[in-house]
Design goal:
This protein is an alpha/beta fold. The protein has two domains: 384 residues, Glycosidases (TIM Barrel), CATH 3.20.20; 68 residues, Immunoglobulin-like (Sandwich). The chain has 15 helices and 23 strands. It has an eight-stranded parallel beta sheet. It has a five-stranded antiparallel beta sheet with strand order 16-17-18-23-20. The longest helix is centred in the middle third of the chain and has 18 residues. The chain is globular, with a radius of gyration of 23 Å.
Length: 552
């Protein structure tokens, strides 16, 4: 594909509420990000994706927006954000924001006007249905019906997510026009683009007919009727044409449910977005993203197959966004490495495996420290609306309370949202006051101060990976090169990156046992890895437990 500037970026995701509290109120803020720009520059990243900073009642931690053109007071002011954009640019760091346009908060003025007057034009900005009974049996992503009754009227409004997140009616041209104006307003401020939230939910099955139930609650998940529905392309093409195409910006789509055969429409040469997240390997341990209390056993073979299927499909059409953690996922070390989550060789091996895939790498805050999941003793310690829903749904489905709590501990979105541990002082140096969400109990051992400048630390390993990927010697192959899976035995994932006549062979042993693999050709030499470089013998590669190697 044609080279684009955003292919070379290394992107760091910040959950602002939990990154750094500059004013001592227990909540991270914009000035906190500005104060930590030197750390991000030290790490070597080139772009920051910031989760929603907009005005919001924070029912879903900012993904319920009440004013798209205002900053939430707990995060600071618009002037603080403009200063961050400017100061980051001085350090060579770009900023992208979250774009949440499937729904608003129920406190948004559009929705408030819709409630106040059913005859108002704003009533058609959302999806309302008349009647004395719930219109259908669709289940929201966060549990319960997608329909919420309007107080005092025989009318219901639609919400694919929380009941305080009414879906916008994208069938209404005025809605689309208003959203496009807002997007361009932000791009004029000098941001580099957007991560586009839940964008495949904007088109609904307009029959609104009930479906066969798929749970004990008698409901059916709305992903079958409100995600990636026929006709969505018309909306996405218009959005791109009226906004993104007018700026040389980067867009990354959170677009679950897109079949591989439709990727061309999303990320092809004329696609709606620059790149896309693929969640198939991120969700290999659960029944579905909306039913993660239903656990599924998995093997490294299955992980390998899902990653390589994803890479080949993305490569065929365009560009991918590679990740192992984000604000909606548990910590990768705990999910993928299980009992070896604290083994630094294993953490580094897994990091290198995903980092050198074809696509733009994303690093979630704390991932570069090898952060792991927490262990909460009570459901009362959780903040995440989705975790609470999954806990009570799993009990309805027959699990005991302790089983339900165990599963929520494993998979809760709060695992990634605990305050960033800057040092081993009280509250991990995140704040001078008790944080909005409890710290991960192991922060005295796993924190930035304990790793910065320390040879062999996970943080320094991430710095080295970023350096390798951008170095003159390897960048053309590791950034722009094609990818092809290499045949390996069970616990080893391997692939080749090829650019012209240059090929780099990458091997990753996901086992606590040594492994031996035949090499595809003679004359290969190891030039980088996560452990002391040994193990090559003739046309055979002997890998230590949890070893990663790159060869030429």
């Amino acid at each position: 594909m044609k080279k684009q500037w955003w292919q070379e970026e290394v992107i760091y995701q910040i959950y602002p509420k939990s990154f750094y509290d500059s004013n001592g109120d227990g909540i991270g803020d914009i000035k906190g990000i500005t104060e930590k720009l030197d750390y991000l520059k030290y790490l070597g990243i080139t772009m920051i994706w910031i989760c929603p900073l907009y005005q919001s009642p924070m029912d879903d931690n900012g993904y319920d927006i009440s004013d798209y053109r205002q900053v939430a007071p707990e995060f600071g002011t618009m002037e603080d954000l403009e200063e961050l954009i400017e100061k980051a640019a001085e350090k060579g760091i770009k900023i992208i924001l979250d774009l949440v346009i499937n729904h608003t908060s129920d406190e948004h003025r559009w929705f408030q006007k819709a409630l106040a007057d059913p005859g108002s034009p704003f009533h058609d900005y959302y999806i309302f249905k008349q009647g004395e009974e719930v219109p259908n049996n669709w289940r929201s992503v966060f549990g319960g019906s997608v329909w919420e009754k309007v107080p005092g009227r025989n009318e219901y409004y639609f919400h694919a997510f929380g009941k305080k997140q009414p879906d916008l009616n994208w069938e209404n041209e005025q809605v689309r026009s208003g959203l496009c104006d807002m997007v361009n307003w932000w791009l004029e401020k000098g941001i580099a683009g957007f991560r586009v939230d839940a964008i495949t939910f904007i088109k609904k099955d307009l029959t609104f007919e009930s479906r066969e139930p798929d749970g004990a609650d008698g409901l059916v998940k709305c992903t079958k009727t409100s995600r990636n529905q026929p006709g969505i392309g018309t909306f996405l093409h218009e959005l791109k044409e009226k906004t993104f195409d007018r700026y040389n910006c980067m867009t990354v789509a959170e677009a679950p449910g897109v079949p591989y055969e439709e990727l061309e429409e999303f990320i092809g040469e004329q696609g709606y977005f620059s790149m896309i997240f693929d969640f198939r390997y991120a969700d290999l341990d659960v029944a579905s993203g909306s039913e993660w209390f239903k656990r599924i056993p998995w093997t490294v073979e299955e992980l390998k197959e899902k990653i390589m299927n994803s890479q080949m499909a993305l490569q065929k059409c365009g560009w991918g966004a590679n990740f192992i953690e984000n604000h909606d996922q548990p910590r990768a070390a705990s999910k993928y490495l299980k009992e070896d989550e604290r083994n630094t060789d294993a953490v580094k091996m897994m990091a290198a495996m995903y980092f050198f895939l074809r696509g733009t790498p994303f690093i979630y805050q704390g991932q570069e420290l090898g952060m792991v999941n927490f262990e909460r003793k009570s459901i009362d310690e959780f903040n995440d609306i989705s975790s609470l829903d999954q806990y009570y749904r799993s009990i309805k489905e027959g699990l005991r309370e302790q089983e339900a709590l165990h599963i929520v501990n494993l998979r809760s979105r709060d695992n990634a949202r605990t305050p960033f541990p800057w040092d081993d002082s009280e509250f991990g140096g995140f704040s001078r006051e008790n944080p909005w969400l409890g710290m991960n109990e192991n922060y005295p051992e796993i924190n930035a101060k304990a790793q910065a400048g320390v040879p062999g630390s996970v943080l320094e390993f991430y710095r080295e990976m970023i350096r390798i990927r951008s170095s003159r010697e390897y960048r053309d192959c590791l950034i722009y090169g094609q990818i092809a899976p290499l045949k390996t035995s069970g616990q080893v994932i391997a692939y080749a990156r090829t650019n012209g006549d240059e090929t780099i062979y990458c091997y990753f042993n996901f086992s606590k046992e040594p492994a031996e693999e035949p090499l595809p050709k003679s004359g290969l030499e190891i030039f980088w890895g996560n452990q002391d470089v040994t193990g090559k013998q003739g046309n055979s590669l002997r890998l230590k437990p949890y070893q990663a190697v790159l060869m030429k």
